Structures are given as structure tokens and as C-alpha cells.
Amino acid sequence: MSTIRLTMAQALVKYLAAQRIVIDGQTYPLFEGVFAIFGHGNVAGMGEALYHARTDLPTLRAHNEQSMAHAAIAFAKANGRRRLMATTSSIGPGATNMVTAAALAHANRLPVLLLPGDTFATREPDPVLQQVEHFGDPTITVNDCFRPVSRYFDRITRPEQLLTSLPQAIATLLDPEHCGPVTLALPQDVQTFAHDYPERFFAPQVHCIRQPRPDDRELDDAIATLTKAKQPLIIAGGGAHYANTCERLGEFARERGIPVAETQAGKGALPDHHPSNVGAIGVTGSAAANQLAEQADVILAIGTRLQDFTTGSRALFERDDLALVSLNVGRIDSLKHRAVPLTCDAGVGLQLFAERLGEWHATEEWRERASAMKREWTAIVQHATHNDGSDLPTDAQVIGAVNRQAGDDGTVVCAAGGLPGELHKLWQCAGPGSYHVEYGYSCMGYEIAGGLGVKMARPEREVFVMVGDGSYLMHNSELATSVMLGHKLVVVVLDNRGFGCINRLQQATGGAGFNNLLADCRSVPEGAPKIDFAGHARALGCQAESVTGIAELEQALQRARSAETTYVIAIDTDPLPATDEGGAWWDVAVPEVSTRDQVQKAYTRYRDAKTRQYH
Prior knowledge:
Elements: E1 3-7, H1 8-17, E2 19-23, E3 26-29, E4 31-36, H2 46-52, E5 59-61, H3 65-78, E6 84-89, H4 93-96, H5 99-108, E7 112-118, E8 152-155, H6 162-174, E9 181-187, E10 194-198, E11 205-207, H7 216-226, E12 232-236, H8 238-242, H9 246-256, E13 260-262, E14 277-280, H10 287-295, E15 298-302, H11 308-311, E16 323-328, H12 331-334, E17 340-343, H13 346-356, H14 364-385, H15 395-406, E18 410-414, H16 419-426, E19 435-437, H17 446-457, E20 462-468, H18 469-474, H19 478-485, E21 490-495, H20 500-508, H21 533-539, E22 543-547, H22 549-562, E23 567-572, H23 597-610
């Protein structure tokens, strides 16, 4: 057997560079590259290995470990989980900075390969710089924090362990059911140890995403349930995108007369103008989708994990006579909420439905009802997002302006705060690829880094990042990275002077305005400073300006579209209003005991609402 002598880090990099994937009949490198911030835990081993492979596996420099991992995750999401990136950091704070990103990837079922440095496996120089000692168990390092937020975790303590660990890591990253973050902790000394690896280990390997077929009995049960329906509703989740079956979903829904509601991850599966699209579902859903959910006799959930924002905290689908069919590649997801499970690839399941449902379709009356409700909701959207001339516009009005300027080639990127809810309700999608909102983990700070990842994945699209002042202040450094790498973003910073979303939630649960809006925070007599976001963005290399009102915003967006580099627009917004129409109840616990009358009243409302939850 022919062998090649390499360090562990060299072997790891060589293996990653040899991986390929087939997408629509074309073969591409599986890994776009590696985001790296070097430190003493990875610069000697991984740094030297990446240097020699920089043509086949490019290394990209970022400014924050969490942000670079967010960008890598967004790249994978924008590629439908078919192409990936890796990230490497030193041991210590560089590694633990990525734990939040790992949790985000885990919650959203998105693949990313995390390669944090680790302490010395030999322990000869212990304790080393940045090492956290566990006196009762010296095998524990800070990288063990990755265990609960990784789909696959391994600590490579011998170079030959790569021979078994790397194939398992790649299999996990590409598994349609178990897809998520993979962490390989790399002790800094072991990165430099050499081994005689079989040359065949590094032969190019071409991967395809599995498309599992269903059990025949499950399929029979699902067909039997669907054919009884007169008023069916489809809920489209992220699985519709990842199974690359959005077009098939649209055809199936149109032919069978079934309205389609979309989760945050599923939004954009159908363009807004599709005759079956009735908008968002759940807590941040349209009135049309939620009313249809309450009236439906069968709900077909496709590729959704049915979390609380989708189900109205288990209160939206409350009727005893409602049947739920869950078509999902994940067994755990397909069994949730007492569903009739159909565990398989979403595209495969839809094709089998099309072949076996015969002449069955929804009633004409149900189809007309759904169309009428969608028309009513469209009018609400237009009213909420139109420019009323205010100098302090609402989030909805800003969304309307960005949506109008985004066009068919635009992608909106967002993550946390009040914006995702308003976007879910109000953004009118052009189709798949036009909407990228991270809401499985609702992670502040994802927005700008996520926009970078989307632009790397889809350079032909104009990427519009919408971010609140709170998230911007948490993570903004990858603006400089976007300029450095030439990946242009249009970033709209909505400055409502605090955490406006949580301020509204605080008051809705009876609390006093406290520690959310800057005006309600402890500060010097002069108050919190007014941040010059445009000036800050210019200091990071961006073009930037501040505007007042929607008319100025739309003009600035036109300038931003024609710019050649990242362009930041800052606008002051009203922190109080949110779109009242639509929506559903959300279970946010209220204190049973309080001296505030508002809290006592909120608790009474909360207790009454909980009676609607099914179990």
C-alpha cells in the first residue's frame, strides 16, 4: 500500500480539498474554503498546512470567530446545504467564541465544520496559555463545550484517528436527517505530529445527498389521511428548500387546490404571487394563513420541525378533529404533535403523493376562501408598508422600502429582534433564494456575517442586510471583511435606540419599560450616546450615509444598488409600533405573583390563553 507522510493538519486539509459534490449534474468542490483566525493553538499546525493548500482550499481571514462561523453557516444555508465551509481557531477564547455559532447551526440543522485548536494532548507543558484546568478530570478542555451543540464531536489525539473520524464527519455534514455542526478538536501538538497515511485516503471523493424513500405502510396511512380532507392546508418548512423541491411543491399545491403557508425557514418556497401562497404561519403569521390553519381539517407539514412560532405554542392547531400529516426526512420531526408520520425526502414524498392521490383535491369553496383571504392580507401588507411621510418610520415601512428596491434579484438577510417577525409577515418574496432569515436560534449578531456568507454563495444576487442597532453593535466587524474580500452588501441599520422588540414584549407581559430602550437604562445624566452608524461603517471601509424618512431611504437604496462596495444606510425608526394584524398567541411565561397591577392582569390573560394549548 502506497503511503504519504504528512502531519495531522496537512492530512486534514488535503482530505477536505479532495471532497467533491454533484449538484444538478455538475461537480463542485464540497468546501468553498476555510475561515481562519490564527492563534498559538492553530497557527503552527493548521496555519502551515493551509498555506500550502491555499489554491485548492482557500483560506479567508475574518475578524471575529463567532462571526466567521456565522458566515460559514449562511454560506451553507444559501447553498441548500450542498456546499460547505470550515472554520478554525486557536484554543481558548477563539474556540469558545464559536460555541454560539455551533448552537445556531444545530438549532437550524445547518452544516459547518468547526476546527478549534486544543490544549496539548501530551500534557507535557501543562498548564498552557488559555488552558482552563479541570482538577478532577484533566481530559476536559473548553472544547467540550461543543459537545451538546455538535451533531458529531471528536478530539483527534492521534494523527491516525483522522482515517476513521473524517469520513464520519463528512457523512454527518451531508446527512439530510442528522445534518448540523461537526466539531473536530485539534490539540496543537497533534496537529504537528506526522503519520504515514494511505495515498488512497486522499483520492477525490464525489458525494451526493441521499433522498430517503418512505416506508410503504407510512405512505398508505398518509395517503388515506389526505384523501379524507376537504379543507387541507400545507405548511412549507425549510426542508422544502433543502430537498430542492420548491417547484414541485408549487405544482402540487396548484393542481390540488391546496393553500400553502410558510414557516420562517420555508418562506420563499413559493413566490408571493403564487396562487396557493397564503403567507406566513404562526406567531408572526398572516391573518390568512392562521385563519385557514384554524379551519383546516388536514394539515400537511412539509420539512418543518413545528416549533412554537409555527404552532402558536401548540394553540393554533387545537381542534380534536384536525389531522396532521408530517412529511419530514427526520424521524423525530415527523412524529411531533401526534402527527401521521411520513419519514422521507420531501421531494420523494411529494412525487409519490402526486402519483397516488388520483383525482383528489380540495373543494372549490375552500380554494376560493383561501384566495379571498390572501387578497385581504395583501391589502393589509400594502397599508402597513406604505410611506406615510413620517420622519420616524416603523419597521414595516422600512421593510416596504427595501422590498420595493430589492427586486427579483435581491435577498434579504436578518436574524433577531422585531425585524424577523415583521419580515415574516410582510416581505413579499420573489421565490427561493430571496429570503434568508435565521430564526431557529434568533441570534443577534448573525445578520452582517450571515449576509457575507450569502453573498459568497450567491454573488449574482444583491444582498440586503436588515439589522437593528442592538445587533449591529454586537457584531459588525465583518463589514470590513466584506470590503476586504470584495463581497458587496447593502446594509440597512434601523436605529430605534435600544432593544425595541424586547421592550414591547416586556410591556406586553405587564413589565415596566426597563433596561431595553436606552432611555430606560442606567446612564450618565446626559444619557446614552447617539451612535453615528454611518460614520462607524465608513471607518470600516464601507460607503455609508444616514437618512431621514422613507423617501430618503429609497433614494439611498438606489445609490447603494449601483455602488461597487458594501454600502451602509442608517435610519432612525420608531421603537414602539409593530404590525397588529395577523399573528397568533406565543407562550411567554408571566410571573404568578407581582405587586404590579399590569403583571397581575397579564398573568390572568396568560392563564386563560394556556387553556387552548393541546398536549
